[in-house]
Specification:
elongated; about 110 residues; about 0% strand; mainly alpha
């Protein structure tokens, strides 16, 4: 299976189109004359509307979340601290363990 080649219809359609083609054939088949021979019945309209509505809601939600996620790029960034400011903050954070709360700093 690992070294085998795909069948001709699979390579003609492509791996991305194959699931869509199978779903389309499965949805159209009950409306063809062959459906009676296979014992198929046409699906109700709601069956097709519900997935379309869910896909539309999903795409809308993705766009809203994406807009919120990338909104931070529009905001101005704070200036990076200088080396002296970083060093001063580092020393203050290290010394904070040894300072008593309420003590007067000199």
């Amino acid at each position: 299976m690992i070294g085998s080649a795909a069948a001709t219809p699979t390579t003609a359609l492509g791996a991305e189109e194959m699931p869509i083609a199978c779903a389309a054939i499965g949805a159209i088949l009950p409306f063809t004359p062959v459906a009676h021979l296979l014992g198929f019945a046409p699906l109700p309209l709601e069956f097709f509307l519900i997935p379309v509505a869910l896909i539309a809601a999903y795409l809308l939600l993705v766009e809203v979340v994406k807009a919120g996620f990338y909104a931070h790029e529009d905001r101005p960034r704070a200036a990076r601290p200088t080396h002296a400011e970083r060093r001063h903050r580092h020393i203050r954070r290290r010394a904070a363990r040894f300072v008593r709360p309420g003590a007067v700093a000199t």
